[in-house]
């Protein structure tokens, strides 16, 4: 959060999962996975329930159009998590992008929805996540990554900041 408010560059934190692929002499592909420490958020009430529900899907693989534990896409993850808390939200990321009040990046709070484009500078929404933690160490969000499935990542990585389009605070 400090980086967003003051323009400073926070050191990049390791991703929730990383993949190192190489082919040993036998020809098999090996994958190394490293987890970063869990960071508790400060959300309360319904939003805390939604965040806990989304976190329960961590490790679920990505599946375009998926809405079950067999596979989820980004907007499906949020629809399920909110649904488990008794809140009905739109299905697509474009519909979710107008389901709330606009929020500036420096004012993000746990439970806010953040929207991204496919490439740096894009204005077309193709991806959504939900803020889980905002503290002195930065902003984390949960989403369904097409390569890693449901994971939490740092919003402040260059990858996500360059693709960020908007944020909304859900109407609850």
Automatic annotation (TrEMBL):
Keywords of the record = Hydrolase, Protease, Thiol protease
The question of whether Hydrolase is a record keyword is answered with: yes
Q: What are the GO MF terms of this UniProt record?
A: cysteine-type peptidase activity
- Tell me a GO biological process for this protein: proteolysis
- Tell me yes or no: is Hydrolase among this UniProt entry's keywords: yes
Q: Where is the NlpC/P60 domain?
A: 44-171
The record's listing under InterPro entries reads: NLP_P60_dom (IPR000064), Papain-like_cys_pep_sf (IPR038765), Peptidase_C40 (IPR051202)
Return the annotated region ranges for Disordered: 1-30
One protein family per Pfam: NLPC_P60
Q: In which family does this protein belong, per the annotation?
A: Belongs to the peptidase C40 family.
Q: By what name is this protein known?
A: NlpC/P60 family protein
């Amino acid at each position: 959060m400090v980086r967003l408010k003051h323009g400073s560059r926070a050191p990049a934190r390791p991703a929730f999962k990383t993949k190192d692929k190489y082919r040993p002499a036998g020809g098999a592909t090996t994958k190394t996975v490293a987890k970063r420490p869990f960071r508790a958020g400060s959300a309360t009430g319904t939003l805390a329930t939604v965040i806990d529900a989304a976190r329960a899907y961590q490790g679920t693989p990505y599946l375009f159009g998926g809405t079950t534990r067999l596979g989820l896409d980004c907007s499906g993850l949020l629809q399920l998590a909110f649904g488990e808390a008794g809140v009905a939200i739109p299905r697509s990321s474009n519909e979710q992008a107008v389901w709330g009040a606009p929020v500036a990046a420096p004012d993000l709070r746990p439970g806010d929805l953040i929207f991204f484009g496919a490439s740096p500078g894009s204005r077309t929404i193709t991806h959504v996540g939900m803020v889980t933690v905002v503290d002195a160490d930065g902003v984390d969000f949960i989403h369904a990554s097409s390569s890693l499935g449901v994971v939490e990542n740092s919003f402040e990585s260059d990858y996500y900041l360059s693709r960020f389009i908007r944020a909304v605070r859900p109407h609850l």
